[in-house]
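hi!! sorry for the late reply, been swamped w classes. u asked for the two structures so here they r. pasted raw, havent cleaned anything up. first the sequence of the first protein and right below it the tokens
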Amino acid sequence: MAVGGLLVFEDPIDHAALLERLEGRLHLVPRYRQRLRTPAPGLNPAWVDDTAFDLGWHVRRATVGKDGLPEFVGHEMSRRLDRTRPLWELTVVDGEVPAVLVKMHHALVDGMAAIGIGMVLLDPTPEPMELPEPESEWEPRRYDRRRHLAKLAISPVGTARRLMTPRDPRDLRKATELLTQLAKTRPAAPMTPLNRSLGPNRRFAMMRAPLDRIKAHGKVNDVLLALVSEMLAAYSHEDVVALVPVSVRKPGEEGGNRISTVLVDLPVSEDDFEERLATISAAMTELKESEAVRAGAILAGA
């Protein structure tokens, strides 16, 4: 469940300068100084301050040749994050292609929240942004296991209800009925070489495409789905169904995951790219305005 991205730069990145920037801005994302702690076997872990937090441990350096960069990223994304520390890492890549590899656990962020994390590293102009200073120097709060267990013991049933039940129980029933009906009407996924269990190994590839050219065709996500459809044609000429995440994050919401999912038909059998893109764009527009998004969000929340 590690997610991430490779930031490619025109000029080399100074490791010490990056550490200094993070040190001055990490208070904007307090979860990045927290790790998971399980209060007792069988109970869900909680986020607690890492009393041994070491920023330098999370920001590494590597020297990689231009041709070896994709392989390096693949290997780094194959390695499991250390669960005893905050679940993120940055790697400053020195070499022909200066880059920073960002790696974090999905429990920490979803796609929209990850964009917010980018603001900790990057400024939109050559002049640094004016950001609020921390009110005081960070001091980790020690985890009180007894207090946590006592709090869980007070009302375990009430806690479970709040986690599992929407405000109106009818919403969950409607969502379940709708998604059950959708599942019954979906075609079966065709078998391809991609239909196999996931292992730990990841591969990474790079290509360059001008963003303005992509936007000229329509929404970026729609163009990417059309490109995925075109690539899938190498494995099968049958149309397939994709599970696509949709953000339901409200203005002002921070951290965590705020997503729903929708089922989208990918027109793999269509040969013309523009026709393929038009079909996907129409389907995504219709789905985003449908009850399917709300239903998926309710179940994802539960």
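now the second protein. again sequence first, tokens right under
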Amino acid sequence: MLCNKCQTDSAHRSHRVGFREHLASLAGYYPYRCRDCGSRFRGLRDATLEPVTAAAQGVEREISSTRGGRRRKAVRRIILLYGGALILFGAILYYLTRAP
């Protein structure tokens, strides 16, 4: 993000303070602070997006597929964990409730 005052690329997102900044963030304007000059300003979050090149699209696609694979593995692990716990719970209930 470019600073409005010194035009350097050293601005970072700042914490929202007060009702006005929280309200502005609903519209997409977030507070930024420059590391060099210390000035504080509001800007659009996606204001510095550059045009996406074909190489960047390929990298983004690869990152997305990797994240999707990790997410699927995590979901599969959770399902197996809860399914195994449910089967174990059913087996314990079966042995506790059967007649001697």
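hope this helps!! also noticed smth abt the second:
The first strand starts at residue 11 and ends at 13.
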